[in-house]
Amino acid sequence: MSLPTSTSFKMPALTRRGFGARIAQATVLAAALGLAACGDAGDGSAAGGSSVVNPALAYEHPLGEITLGDPDAPLTLVEYASYTCGHCAAFHAVNLPPLKEQYIETGKVFYIFREYPLDPVATAASMLTRCVATDKALQFADVLFARQQQWAFVQDPRSALQAIARQGGISASQFEACMTDQEVLDGLREVQKHAQETLQVQATPTIFVGDEKINGNLPWAQLEEIITNQLPG
């Protein structure tokens, strides 16, 4: 069983070993250059001058949103992320914990997580997340990011993903069903197409905080300043 393909990521046929090696090399290069985003663009900065308020919110996710917090919170933060993106993993390890504690759990921010897979391995991880109960999906996403080096950049990422799925209570037959669910794959592609064409998302993470678009992963102090400025009052 091959990994699903992502419409936005064009690449020649590769062995799993070669594929993992190329992603690892790209991640190392990005780190060496000081980049804060994975993909085509992104400099870890806020995209100023946005004239559209909450552009990411004017969209109904075909697969249902993965969220955390109170939908009636005064501010919404939307993250577009790829599971094989090292900067996305860094966001979930460093920025998401204080975001949860100080803003989401206190009712100030409503958080929406949207998959934006940059490659077939990330697409497979996104499809797998959609097999998890909705209220556990974000927790499973955090596990995938925390263990990214154990499955995303290995010789056989599919088997590594299946091992994580098994630990999460997903059987072999359920895993196979996840990897071949055309409805889920089509939904992921639709979300990605909308993000590219309507929101000009070109890299991950791309984060929308109120009416501000952030390309890449900012240090927490900078992200918190943007959140504070966007909160009413």
TrEMBL record:
A GO MF term: oxidoreductase activity
The keyword NAD is assigned to this record: no
Top-level taxon in the UniProt lineage: Bacteria
SUPFAM superfamilies: Thioredoxin-like
Keywords noted in UniProt: Disulfide bond, Oxidoreductase, Redox-active center, Signal
Listed PANTHER family: DISULFIDE BOND FORMATION PROTEIN D, GLUTATHIONE S-TRANSFERASE KAPPA
Family to which this protein belongs: Belongs to the thioredoxin family. DsbA subfamily.
Protein name: Periplasmic thiol:disulfide interchange protein DsbA
